[in-house]
Design brief:
Helix 3 crosses helix 5 and helix 4 packs across helix 5. Strands 3-2-1-4-5 form a five-stranded mixed sheet, sandwiched between helices. The chain is built from five helices and five strands; from the N terminus they run βββαβαβααα. The chain is α/β, with parallel strands linked by helices.
């Protein structure tokens, strides 16, 4: 059995999901959102680091997967996202977890078969992940999709 942690980073909300993989069988373990709100930015980074560290200590995953940064229209947002990713990655490396990085397009492609799909589990793989892992809530399937990609690569 291999436990994989998937992380969908953000500077105000940081999602996570955990699956257990045994061959082709996936079991949902946990998922949630770390909420930082409007606290000062350095405190938000600290919260990401400590909460991801706590999750790693509780579930002892063998690997982690995190969404890569994409550049939209707002450079400031991309920089903050990069710093949030950094806080999560440092938490993982603190526990010697290998960290795989996947683009948002790659995760969507793995879930629904095309990289420019909507962010909902609308087709085949998204439904399989949702049903298999019993995920609920906004972004949950994407976080678990990160885990599933790491399981295959």
């Amino acid at each position: 059995m291999t436990i994989i942690l998937g992380i969908d980073p953000g500077s105000r909300l940081c999602g996570y999901g955990l699956i257990s993989a045994r061959g082709n069988k996936l079991d949902y373990l946990a998922s949630g959102v770390i909420k930082m709100g409007a606290s000062p930015f350095p405190e938000r980074l600290h919260t990401i680091f400590t909460d991801i560290s706590d999750i790693i200590e509780e579930f002892a995953p063998a690997a982690a997967a995190i969404e890569d940064v994409f550049m939209g229209k707002n450079a400031s947002s991309a920089l903050k996202l990069g710093q949030a990713r950094g806080a999560a990655i440092v938490a993982c490396t603190r526990y010697d977890l290998p960290v795989a990085e996947y683009s948002p397009r790659r995760v969507k492609q793995a879930l629904v078969g095309k990289g420019q799909a909507e962010k909902k589990p609308g087709t085949a793989n998204g439904k399989i992940i949702a049903r298999t892992c019993q995920c609920a809530g906004r972004g949950c399937c994407r976080r678990l999709g990160h885990c599933n990609l790491s399981r295959h690569y």
